[in-house]
Amino acid sequence: MIHCKPKRQTYFSLTFITLLLLTGLVFLLRDFAISRNFHFLFYLIGTTVLTLVILLLVVKILAGMKFVAAGGNKIILRWPVKKLTKTYTLQQVLAWEEEVVQANKREFRQLTLAFQDHFSIQLSNHEHEGYSAFVEYLRKKCPKARVKPKNAKKGN
Asked: Which domain of life does the UniProt lineage start with (predicted)?
């Protein structure tokens, strides 16, 4: 069975940045309550921006945490935060596509997997462990469902 799970480094980094921003928000609100060294608009805009960025990061962390297991002609998707588990057979895979982008001398790969019930997921090699093994599993078991990109080279 192939397991594709979130990388700890990615979620550690996102959590660290969120805590850092939260600390900045607390210090900004503390400064407003105690000394008010800056203009009111600075506090208003600063707290609004920091709060929105913190909320977006928390949503990214919680909603993006998914586990994928593949084997035995099944794909099992699990979201622990949502307490949701979905199981699909390989015949229910409608299409899958892997996009490859070169950025900053690094290769970024993203897999989009669509199922017959119009549900889809996205996985990337920078955020998930076991990504390449999962793509190889799909290449072997679901070659007909693969959608090749328009600019794909032959032999890919």
From this structure: Bacteria
